Amino acid sequence: MPLSTDSIPVGDIRDRLIIGLDVPSVEEARAIVQRIGDAGTFYKIGYQLAYAGGFAFVQELIAQGKKVFLDLKLHDIGNTVEEGVRSIARLGATLLTVHAYPQTMRAAVAGKAGSDLKILAVTVLTSYDDQDLIEAGYAPVPAADLVAKRAAQARDIGIDGIVCAAPEAARVRAIVGPDRLIVTPGIRPAGSEAGDQKRIVTPGEALRLGSSHLVVARPIVKAADPRAAAQAIVAEMAAALA
């Protein structure tokens, strides 16, 4: 299936690499962005940085011409999600995550109305495997099947894209069609440690499986040379697409 081209311009391969700023302070994040320079165009801000001054940093990055993915995984009663998304939309971020529960997704779609914000539904966290789902109280069901069910619900509700592990990307692409985003975390370049991720692949493999955008954090931000690490991943992505 073709990669998404409608929701976010992806003519520049760098726009398909989302660099996770999983660091404890804006100062450290700012230093990483400076070191990466024009090798990175798209950055993810999650819990750790968001609650340490990261919301103001969103606007700083946008002023530099960068795109921002706010990975907040919202999930609450419908009104709270809707109003929260409405506030977030005013920040100017490109992407925002919510958990893929139908009520939450419908509220997020309502909250972002009239803005350019794109909503991504998180299906099953990449740190979960089948046993983790059983432990959490789900009936015995493969993680991939739960991902597929939630992807279909997200499609029908009008969500802009899906967050899923790369091993599920091909199946999700068949469900959501060619134009929605598929954003894949848990990416590890060949030779990297898995860390706390359980369903991981390399950048090239993820693109070949149908992902449109890849999230890479530790292999870049913890590298001795973050710029070189980002450039190497972009090169691998370009080779896979070629």
TrEMBL record:
EC number(s) given by UniProt: 4.1.1.23
**Top-level enzyme category:** lyase
- Entry keyword set: Decarboxylase, Lyase, Pyrimidine biosynthesis
Q: Orotidine 5'-phosphate decarboxylase domain: from which residue to which, for each copy? A: 16-233
Where is substrate annotated to bind?
22, 44, 71-80, 126, 188, 197, 217-218
Q: Please state which protein family the record places this protein in.
A: Belongs to the OMP decarboxylase family. Type 1 subfamily.
Q: What is this protein called?
A: Orotidine 5'-phosphate decarboxylase
